[in-house]
Amino acid sequence: MSIANPLMPQMATILDITAETPDVKTLRVSGKDGLPFEFMPGQCAMLSVLPVGEAIFSITSSPTCRDCLEFSIKNVGKVSSYLHSLAPGQQIGIRGPYGNGFPVDQIKGKDLLFIGGGIGLAPLRSLIGYCFANRDDYGQIDIVYGARSPADMIRKSEVKETWAEQPNTNVHLTVDAEFPDWKGHIGFVPNYVTELAFTPANKVAITCGPPIMIKFVLQALDKLGFAPEQVITTLEMRMKCGVGKCGRCNLGSVYVCKDGPVFSLAELNELPGEY
Amino acid sequence: MKKMIAADELAKLWIRLAEKSTLFLPVQDGPTVLYQPWKDGAQVELEAFNSAISPKDIFLPREETYLHYHCSGQSLELAAVEDDRAVTAFGIHPCDLKAIEMLDRVFMEQEPADSLYQKRREKTTVVALSCTKPDPFCFCGIFDVDPLDAPGADVMAHLVDGYMHLEARTEKGKALLEEAGDLLENSTIDKIEREIKTTDFGLDIKGLPEDLKSRFDDPAWDELYKSCLSCGVCTYVCPTCYCFDVEDYGHDAEGERFRCWDSCMFGHFTQMAGGHNPRPSRKERVRQRFMHKLQYYPEVYNEIACVGCGRCLRSCPVNLDIVQAIKALGGEKVEHR
Amino acid sequence: MSTALNEKSAGYQPLIVAFCCNWCSYAGGDLAGTSRMSYPANVRVIRVPCCGRMNPMFVLRAFQRGADGVLVAGCHPGDCHYSTGNYHGRRRLSAFKRLVEFAGFEPDRFEVRWISSSEGDKFAEEMEQMTAKIKALGPNRKMRDARWQSVT
Amino acid sequence: MAERNLEQLEKIREAVSQDLLSGRIELLLGWEKGHYWWQSRPLFASSEGDLARLTWDSFCAVNLSRYLLDELKDHQKVGVLVKGCDSRAFNRLLQDNMVQRDRVILYGLPCPGILDYNLLAAEAGSKLKGITEENGQVILKTEDGEIEVNRDEMLMVKCSECLYPDPVVYDQMLLEPLGQKEVPERFKAVNELEALSSEERFAYWEKELSRCLRCYACRQACPYCSCRECFVEQENPRWQGRAYQPSENFLFHLVRAYHGAGRCIDCGECQRACPVNIPLQELNRKLIKDINELYGDYEAGVDAEKEPPLLTYRPDDPAAFSEK
Questions:
Q1: Domains: count for chain A
Q2: For residue B229, which residues of chain D lie inside 8 Å, CB to CB?
Q3: Do residue A17 and residue A82 come from a single domain?
Q4: What is the pLDDT along chain C (152 residues), one digit of tens a residue?
Q5: Which class would CATH give C16-137?
Q6: Are D42 and B260 in contact (CB < 8 Å)?
């Protein structure tokens, strides 16, 4: 009997690369025949560029997109900067999917409040796309998205045009400070959430962004009366294996790469706060 | 099947076993004893307590290459590298074999199984050897290790009065003894009688894992870590530590990817590309290591991830070992406190 | 540096890496070239700002990746563009040379020379000598990384 | 069972407890007993209760000065018990601007050398239950009776060749100084290796370094390795690969040793910390020997005012290569 090596990547090809912001690019990646693997929103994949290394990224496309996977990647480290330097047509290694993904069944029938900051929109976008594709399963959708500046917003046209046009959907955009061409809301995401005064009844809030934003968003949601079970977030940790063995991403006995990265606030409250 | 061979004939057995497999034995290497592939002339030290590094690297090597890559232009080729050699792990002490069984749960039972580990484990015949004279740091007794018997062994061996007695426990073990059938005679002893005294350092670990569940923020952590030098000795000598890293070696056109040992005691272990580090100081890292042994692992597998081999007690340059930790966390018999 | 020359062919051609000071030896090499002096093609020149900038890891990395010999060339004492870089370099490289010899390298594998920008002839001569010495020693296996494959 | 001298310990305790109680120091770095009588481990004492655990015996091997790097972040003023080597380590850190002199009180403890338990146990033959010391002799108490051995022959490697048993810098000397030691054999191992051929030397180091686990205990225990980011962890360029290849082992150990050129205080903590007994001091001592030969006698850590030899030069310096 022979089992596959879970660390062995498969081949994938970069279809195209789009610059989103000065430091974020979106890569569209396909396997031999379309999707390299089936996945659920919120799951991640390991991308390999040899001999630079491997790093884990959340899949930003929805599983309903059948021809490729999309990754919105911020240039912060060795692998990400190398990925930024590649050209369409380049072959890379990929393995996955990793993690639990968002609880798409559990949140059926609920109103959804998405709160994203900067590159933190990437994992949310997968779920948002999934919800739009299964629109009848979910109630009203509110999307709060903020960035430091208008230039730092990813998927701008999609957010403004496609998402805002969806039925029973509101998009609320904000930037941290005044900018010449910005006519929308100005202020930090957590404050905007408070201002918008969302009501917790039959609602689930799903948030992702920089740690400092998440911290204050959680406080804001708490003040608005959201119970910990109604708040969902997704964590980012250093990972090497993706299969719960290498020892980096554990919170207590829970492995973020395997049992996460999606946790409800109620679950997180039970775990050591080492993230 | 019970066989025996005179201790001074053992070299013949090594030669035989090394013909068809890579034979790992505890070998004197300079001033240390390490499990190494046997070579003619190697000084085998079966009674040494204990090898400086645990024999875990027979199953989880310090370094193992698992893919080769070739790039040309934009195309990339990946080829899996497989290691199919048969292995005999000879002279594994009961504590170390128990530790390997703990690794089995992580690498084989917990999905997805790790094929590199599993293959090596399946290809290895383990000859366990009962202890004769444990050293002052051996404290396997408190972890229910029987120094005279390793239940998971393929062959259980005992050194008694100038003879090594070998009892096959599995099909693999039987095959091994048959392989060397002409060198062996029938064993003359039925049961091994030997009194082995190990220390318990006054520890009482009953209920410790459950107790620690709520003690992530215990003030004991604020003191315990202070002498830690942040080196990786404890994790590398430890038979139950298994953290690893994955790294590439090569240039633009070709090279390889390998996995190698890593240590949760290193500051860079959890450092993210953007600079954030969830375990930024020695305190978090020391807590991670001991909590993993004493609470996280038992929470999943119902057993403390320590076998009392004593290696961290012997090797830590500042004596910050697991016994020190258990004591600091209150796992001591009342009369010792 | 990633080129390992074919050692099995009859005429063994060693690979020599020369770290040359930008202000003197590198210009000395230039002069050798423009003066049509010939020196062996075995030498790969890497320009450094000063021999005082030499990091021991440069030397060891060259050996890891296929160099059979390493030469550091700097300005004659007293002539440093930065006044004292080569004086410091002399001490450091001396200590380092003895250390790598202690680790088992033959003394000729790692050399230091002073070559000024006007000494095109000396540059060519030193490269000639170094190449001959390394040819006599044969390929270096010490510290060569067994995994390093030549780029073909 | 292994107290060097209870009188000495009382004297030390009295001096430091005065300072701790008066607030002259916030923390004292000392030693306490480990699990066994042959183990003494670091003690971080901030109260009189902690001081009750203080020990001073023939097993206080750990060099405490290195802990200042962290403890001075949390404490304004720290007291340290320093043996000869610990005091030189302090000077090393001082010269590297890693500690401030006025925030540290050094209590000097002349040290006749740390005993090596493995040597004692080997000498004892049967089970060793304890020792006492008298007039340069160690009396081993074994199950089969007592055995007397010469103390100097039972020392750790790092101590048997120690030149400076007395602290070279201190605020208060707590015990009677022992005077400088003559160690004619200091470079014996280096000389022997130098006498070998290149091939033999390479084979020797390849074998010794092959045991290296890259646990970096040598670096972490070392008072000269105080860089905030070591070349080992540097990402760009990535000098040190993680593989256990001979080439990677050589890279690490040669560069580690070289970074100590003219800076290594020869305390031997690297070698003591090594779990697989690599003779690291031979690399360090090779550099000490060469630098002394080429650029004049220099003992790192002995005088914090004296400039390290690789930070300076003379126009007429000799070289280890042809300057023609």
A1: 2
A2: 66, 217, 220-221, 273
A3: yes
A4: 334 444 444 589 999 999 999 999 999 999 999 999 999 999 999 999 999 999 999 999 999 999 999 999 999 999 999 999 999 999 999 999 999 999 999 999 999 999 999 999 999 999 999 999 999 999 999 999 999 876 54
A5: alpha beta
A6: no
